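Structure first, sequence second, as always.
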């Protein structure tokens, strides 16, 4: 049995708590490793060491820090297949999806290679008689990232890239379900030239998270996970005077207008709804066709596409569409919600219940399910299922479809498929959701923009990666300076008006 470690001071360090969590193979249901769960004392010691290392890292000029990101990006590319397999082995997603996980994180690192430009301040010459003003963007110090299981490479890279290139030290607490990718990324960062102690990877559970939130040295916390935990972390971090950006759950809708290309819409729904077994915060879980004719035609196209989906382990090859879900508990919850949907009156058009894969009967595989005639009162609509389940909610009009999206408490992502530019423009302007796709099902912005939802999908003022990340991981200091020249006249006791 492999026993994993923490990463402290540039090396692997065994845990001392005596507590461990099992790291599962979701395809077989077997325990493949044990990961140590840190105590508060272990976390506090790692944070204190990071604070010492951060001073020298902050004094390193931004261009040299960017060169570390350049070398890191090169190493990620060289080890792409290895990293993708680490992702797939612990998460269960297919190898192409695992490579995509790493690639989307790498794209943020590529933006961080240009960090010197993002960290420039502002300057005002002659703001007053002989007075100049300038601002500086300076690192916060020690910051923390708490990342989820569903993107073991991408989201840690989203956190560490901007934080480190801004001159901070980072405490990374990855999901205890998928910790190996973060540990390998730490090794690669050391090889790229990151000084020891600037990145500490500390595995743990709630005890480790609370130790981060209550430690006065930690200046900011970034989190991705469920909405209840996002609210908890945001509230406790804010109470303790920390910056926090906490991203939670989602219920993403795709509106399909009568003039849309229904074949393209159906293809988009299947990929966005069932990719990664639906374990994506940007997954489309609700299809909203406008008009009965549109709804009937869409269902006709969805059924054969969903029935043809191939479910299997990542080792089965690239033709597998999606793998298992993360745990037996996740599988049981998804199955229970599907059963509840049937009991509450939704029409189960494609039934994924009872799915079993020969040779992998103990794995956490869930078959694809498709519901029609779902209503907003049903549990399968109200809850984030986080599994391979797509619900169709029929709308009589565009206005009804738009209201459905706007009334939902989540606001992570949404999409509309239409051939009419005026409708698309109206939707983009009016919908109260953070990321909008037009004929594009999963509108995750490119890495030089910023990612973030609205409503109960996000807590905090700034989004992830892109320009917002550099604002989040730095604070602004403004200097007003005057160099005396000529005859001086004594002190002044009031604010002097500008000439």
């Amino acid at each position: 049995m492999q026993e994993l470690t923490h990463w402290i001071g540039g090396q692997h360090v065994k845990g001392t708590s005596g507590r461990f969590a099992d790291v599962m193979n979701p395809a077989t249901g077997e325990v493949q490793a044990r990961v140590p769960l840190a105590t508060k004392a272990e976390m506090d010691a790692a944070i204190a060491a990071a604070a010492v290392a951060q001073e020298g890292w902050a004094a390193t000029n931004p261009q040299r820090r960017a060169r570390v990101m350049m070398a890191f990006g090169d190493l990620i590319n060289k080890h792409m297949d290895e990293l993708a397999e680490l992702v797939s082995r612990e998460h269960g997603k297919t190898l192409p999806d695992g490579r995509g996980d790493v690639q989307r994180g790498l794209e943020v690192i590529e933006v961080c290679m240009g960090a010197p430009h993002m960290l420039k301040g502002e300057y005002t010459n002659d703001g007053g008689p002989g007075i100049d003003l300038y601002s500086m963007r300076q690192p916060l110090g020690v910051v923390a990232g708490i990342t989820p299981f569903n993107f073991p490479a991408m989201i840690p890279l989203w956190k560490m890239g901007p934080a480190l290139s801004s001159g901070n030290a980072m405490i990374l607490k990855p999901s205890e379900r998928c910790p190996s990718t973060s540990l390998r990324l730490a090794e690669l960062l050391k090889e790229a030239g990151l000084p020891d102690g600037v990145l500490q990877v500390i595995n743990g559970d709630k005890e480790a998270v609370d130790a981060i939130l209550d430690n006065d040295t930690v200046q900011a916390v970034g989190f991705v996970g469920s909405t209840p935990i996002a609210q908890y972390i945001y509230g406790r971090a804010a109470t303790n005077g920390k910056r926090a950006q906490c991203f939670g759950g989602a219920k993403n809708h795709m509106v399909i207008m009568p003039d849309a290309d229904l074949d393209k819409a159906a293809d988009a729904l299947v990929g966005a709804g069932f990719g990664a077994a639906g374990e994506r915060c940007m997954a489309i879980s609700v299809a909203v066709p406008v008009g009965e004719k549109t709804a009937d035609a869409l269902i006709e196209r969805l059924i054969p596409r969903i029935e043809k989906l191939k479910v299997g382990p990542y080792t089965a090859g690239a033709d597998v569409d999606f793998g298992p879900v993360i745990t037996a508990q996740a599988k049981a919850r998804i199955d229970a919600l599907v059963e509840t949907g049937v009991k509450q009156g939704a029409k189960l058009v494609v039934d994924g219940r009872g799915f079993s894969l020969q040779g992998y009967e103990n794995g956490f595989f869930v078959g694809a399910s498709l519901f029609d005639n779902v209503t907003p009162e049903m549990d399968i609509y109200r809850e984030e299922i986080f599994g391979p389940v797509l619900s169709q909610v029929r709308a009589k009009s565009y206005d009804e479809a738009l209201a459905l999206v706007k009334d939902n408490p989540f606001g992570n992502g949404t999409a509309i498929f239409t051939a009419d530019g005026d409708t698309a423009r109206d939707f983009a302007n009016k919908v109260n959701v953070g990321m909008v796709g037009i004929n594009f099902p999963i509108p995750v912005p490119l890495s030089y923009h910023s990612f973030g939802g609205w409503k109960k999908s996000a807590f905090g003022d700034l989004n992830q990666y892109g320009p917002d990340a550099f604002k989040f991981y730095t604070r602004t200091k403004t200097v007003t300076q005057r160099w005396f020249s000529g005859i001086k006249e004594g002190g002044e006791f009031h604010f002097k008006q500008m000439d």
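Margin note: Residues 2-248+457-479 form a domain with the Aldehyde Dehydrogenase; Chain A, domain 1 fold (CATH 3.40.605.10).
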